[in-house]
Amino acid sequence: MEKVSKPHAARMVFAKNLRQVRRLKEVSQEALALQAGLSRTYVSEVERGERNVSIDNMGLLADALGVKLKELLDPEMLKTL
Asked: Which of 7, 30, 54, 75 is the most exposed place for a label (fewest CB within 10 A)?
């Protein structure tokens, strides 16, 4: 029987913060992907917490949105927006 793994909490924090910031800045997934040099499908999977995103790609996404990476990793960020 195949084990289904639950996404790690840190991955979900990043995913939710990324989506929230992207929407607040009114940037489409496609535009974010283009700016970061990634595919739209990849960005979508990251935002849903399905992709175990590398630290390098996390940095590319943060830069593309004009925010600090540490903000996208802050579990309290969503509470202050």
From this structure: 54
